[in-house]
Every structure is written in C-alpha cells, then in structure tokens.
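Example 3.
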Amino acid sequence: MKIRCIAILNRQDIPVYMRSFDETLNEDSAVKYQYLAHTSVDVIEERMANTKSTDLYLGLLQTVGELAIYGYVLNTGARIILVISVPESIVRSAAIREIFQQIHAAYIALVCNPFNNEQGKLVSSKFDLIVSELGRVHSN
Amino acid sequence: MFFLYFYTVTATANLLAALSLDGKDSAGDRQVNGSALELLISELVNTLTLTTQETKWGSETAAQSDEPKEEGAVEARTLADAPKRSTGVRSSPMVSGWQEVPDNSELMEQVYVKLELIGFRIGRRLAERFAPPNRRLTDTLDIVKFVCKDIWMLMFNRQIDNLKTNHRGIYVLQDNKFKWFLRMSGNNGGAAAARRAQPYIWLPCGIIRGVLDSYGVGTVVIAETLGLPQCTFQIKVVSDA
C-alpha cells in the first residue's frame, strides 16, 4: 500500500491542505488530486446523511482506477481525504483508521497554535514533517 | 552522513509515536493547576480595563497636545496619572481591582468586546482539542449538552447544574456555584456585588460561543448573575448545525 495523497478540506469544502506523494510532480497530478478531493466530498455528504453510525471514520468512499479514497470527518467540520494506490494484499480498515487518527492528532496540534492564521491555508512545517513521515512509513 | 540520516529518521519516527488524540504524552497526562486559571482571569479583566482606558485616554490627549511626539512621551504617562482623568475608576498600581465598576459604559463595552473575542478564540481551540474523538455530535442539543458536561468539567471541574431549553433555539445554562465567583465577596451586598462581577463572566460567554461556532452552530450568548455565586448563561441559536 502506498499513500498517494492527503487532503484536508474545511467546513465550506475549501481545500486547506493538499499534499501528494507522487514521484513525478507535475501540474497534472495536483489537479487530479484536487478533482478527486472534490468528488469525494459529494460522497462524504451522502455518507453522512445516510449512515446512522456516529463514527468519525467514513471508510472507503470510492475507487478510481488504481486509487482508493478513504474519508474521515472531524466534529469541527473539517474533512480528511486519504488517497492510496490499491494494494495487492488486503488493507485492514484498522490500519487506515490509525493513519487518520494520527493526522487528526497532528491537525489538533496545528489548530491550537495561537500564531496560526485560522482562515487561510494550513501552513506548518511540523505538520508537513508529520505528513511526510506518514507517507514514508506507509510507502512499502 | 549516514548517522545524520539515521538520526532524522528516528526523530521523525518519534514524532508519530508522540501523537495521540486524547493529548496524553508518553510521560502521562499533562496537567496544570486550576488556580493558575483563576488568578489569570481576575488579572485579565482588570488589566484589559486599565489598558483600554489607557489607550482611549491616550488617544484623546495625543490629539489635543501640540508637543512634538517623541518616543518617550508614551512611557512618561504612568498608570498613576490615569485616575486623575478617568471617569470613575479609582485604582492605583499598587492595588489590583477597582472600588467601583467604571461608569464609562463605552469603556466597558470595549472591554466586553475584547474579552468576548478572546473567549471566542479560546473556545474554538478547546472545541478542536477536546471534541469527542470517536463519535460525531449530531444535533444542536447534543452539542449544547457536550458544552455543559465536558467543557465545564475541563474548565471548572464540575458540570452545569441546570439546562433548560424551549426546543426552539434557546438554551439556558444555570451554574449555582460558579467557580470564579466562589472567591468573590462584596461588602455592599447582593446587587452591587453582582454588578461588579459582571465583567468576569464575559470570557466564559465567548468561550461557549467559540465552542458552539466550531461545531457549526452560530449563537449569541448572554450571561447574567442574580447573586453570587450563581450565574446563568442564555444561548440563542442564530444558525443551526
């Protein structure tokens, strides 16, 4: 399993953080992941309206080609999207859930920083470091 | 070179290990003495009032004086000068607090705005930090109950005594032994003491509004106290979750 992209959108569905782990960094991949994030939001809305469970982890949202997209919602409205390349072996949902919880914990630390600009994009070198580490750990 | 790489790898691996949703360190729960917050609050209100008055009074005299403005001019005015030109605040740098609530309602309105805004920012961060990590808060009543139980427990180590709602967007939270009022006593009796305690509940108003706003509920929060140590917060929902 390899993490391809981690994206965070705020309550108004505006992407505030986008990080892709493609080797070939070109504009196509950035646009592709933005598009994927936006289509996933529709699935998230539908999933949240329909499901009776009050879980933060929304599970597999959709699969596009060789990519699988998972979603996670925060109580404060932010949505976290995780795009991974479909692996040969079965991916346990517990592993994905743990990745989301780590991103959530890092996001909380980011928001609690009083020097952080609340309205704009999330800019934090420590958060970038944590996301890079997650990408590195799960790129086997 | 390899050693450096190895070091950065282990350092960042520890970064992941240190992440936890409930804020517990590997060293255990990190806690701060609650009295620190009480001391901070009583000084916060007083300091904001004095500095707001200082800047207001400062801007008036700067407009009137025709001396050339210099760097030293600001420091020359000490807090000891303030009572001579103030409108009803009798306080000296030695004694914290005031004998009377300042009559200047415009001043207190500015202090209210500042305190409420500070509380709002605190509330947003509290909401993010202490949101229940494994379930979604679904409707407004759920969110208000979360405020009553969890946020109050975090800040004051007790829960709201009474929650009333008309199910049409108005919630009344009643706290009969508000923690920050427990150490206040007025020698003039109930009504005057209640009036003087008013600024100290503006911060919790902001905090409640910040928490609710984080969860998508736009509100207006008003607090009043009929007699120490009781206080009531009234939440009017403006835009729903």
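Chain A touches chain B at residues 11, 48, 54-56, 73-77, 101-102, 104-109, 111-112, 114, 118, 126, 129-130, 132-134, 136-137 (CB under 8 Å). Helices of chain A lie at 27-50, 93-111, 125-137.
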